[in-house]
Amino acid sequence: MAFIKVTISLMLLYFLSVTLCLAHPGFNFPWGGNGHFGGANYGLFPQFYQFSCPQVDDIVMSVLKKAIAKEPRTAASLLRLHFHDCFVQGCDASVLLDDGATIVSEKNSIPNQNSLRGFEVIDEIKAKLEEACPQTVSCADIVALAARASTVLSGGPSWELPLGRRDSKTASLSGSNNNIPPPNSTIQNLITSFKRQGLDEVDLVALSGGHTIGVARCATFKQRLYNQNGNNQPDVTLERTYYYGLKSVCPITGGDNNITPLDLASPAKFDNTYFKLILYGRGLLTSDEVLLTGNLGNTMALVKSYALNEHLFFEQFAKSMIKMGNISPLTGLNGEVRKNCRRLN
Questions:
Q1: CB-based burial, 283-307: b 16+ in 10 Å, e otherwise
Q2: What is the mean pLDDT of the chain?
Q3: Model confidence pTM above 0.85
Q4: Are 44 and 326 in contact (CB under 8 A)?
Q5: First and final CA of the chain: distance in angstroms?
Q6: Which of 24, 84, 211, 311 is catalytic?
Q7: Fewer CB within a 10 Å sphere, N or C end of the chain?
Q8: What is the DSSP string of 232-263?
Q9: In terms of Cα–Cα distance, which of 325, 333, 323 is closest to 31?
Q10: What span, in angstroms and rounded, lies between the C-alpha atoms of 207 and 157?
């Protein structure tokens, strides 16, 4: 009899927890499973705000339509922001935190300083969501939602985005300096860096395709033009006409903040032109071109496949974005939902 009572009690507790999880996203018990990247194990699911903030997608999209119409570069900036967030402590909005009493901001890291953009757009989205649904939608989810919306508004694919991340109470300057691969990375550096996050070669090549939109500063590719291998010579993989064009934008001294498109053919359109350009020696960054020339793994074959088949690229990009967005999220009672994305509550 006692056993039956205990069993019934446990069943009631289970159904109560499930009901609470569905009725209020704040009750999100991380029960079951300990997989590192499986969203379901952490309580991430696309309908997370279905009842607590059903207008979340509309608000994100409305802000981004205006922001991208005003400055098309914003789309690429927000896509990159999600990447730089997830590769440091997981997708927890740590990258948004400003310096504070207990915070040394990741914005000061070498990959981010004077480079990472889009913070004001995230602030605007957060402010509108706080008006509509106070203390409900996390900054980490806003970053993920903004990356997806930016891709869609640029002509790229959409995906069913698992939600329910919470915001970190810490940042990691050292993690930002060490975990984000630099633009002059070798193919081995890239594969190792992505593998550390649970991402494979397919994810590496597909996510690199995000460079189909946006621009890069001269400082990120100057080495290729003037001293690629420490011998004061350019990178021999650069197509000659493209090389001379880049030299006019990026002189040997100065001009570090001059910008040029990552995809010179269609810099504001999300398509597979990025991969076609790499095949012609017109990948801008070393980290772009080594996907083809690095002679390691399957990256060369993947570049060729995505150059030939845009649908295949879109399909894999969506899968890899979901996978990246599931890197070590905070859920349940971990972290917090920040009222202001730049500082702790």
A1: bbbbbbbbbbbbeebebbebbebbb
A2: 89
A3: yes
A4: yes
A5: 48
A6: 84
A7: N
A8: S---TTS-HHHHHHHHHHS-SSS-TT-EEESS
A9: 333
A10: 13
Q: Is 201 within 8 Å of 297 (Cβ atoms)?
A: yes
| 27 close to 17: Cβ distance less than 8 angstroms | yes
Tokens of 220: 């990120």
User: Is the separation of the CB atoms in 93 and 140 below 8 Å?
Assistant: yes
Nearest by Cα to 142 from 64, 249, 31: 64
Decide if 311 is catalytic: no
Under a CB-based contact definition with an 8 Å cutoff, are residues 297 and 54 in contact? no
Q: What integer pLDDT is reported at residue 35 of this predicted model?
A: 32
Structure-token pair, residue 316: 């894999």
261 has which bridge partners? 215
* Cα Rg of the chain, angstroms: 22
Taking CA atoms, 237 is separated from 64, 156, 271, 283, 290, in Å, by 37, 28, 23, 9, 9
pLDDT band at 21 (very low <50, low <70, confident <90, very high): very low
Supply φ then ψ for residue 338, to 5 degrees.
Answer: -65, 140
Q: How far apart are CA 231 and CA 326, in angstroms?
A: 42
- What the block records as the tokens of 96 is 């948004």
Q: Are strands 215-217 and 259-261 parallel, antiparallel or unpaired?
A: antiparallel
pLDDT tier, 104 (very low <50, low <70, confident <90, very high otherwise): very high
CA-to-CA separations, 335 to 31, 52, 338, in angstroms, rounded: 17, 19, 9
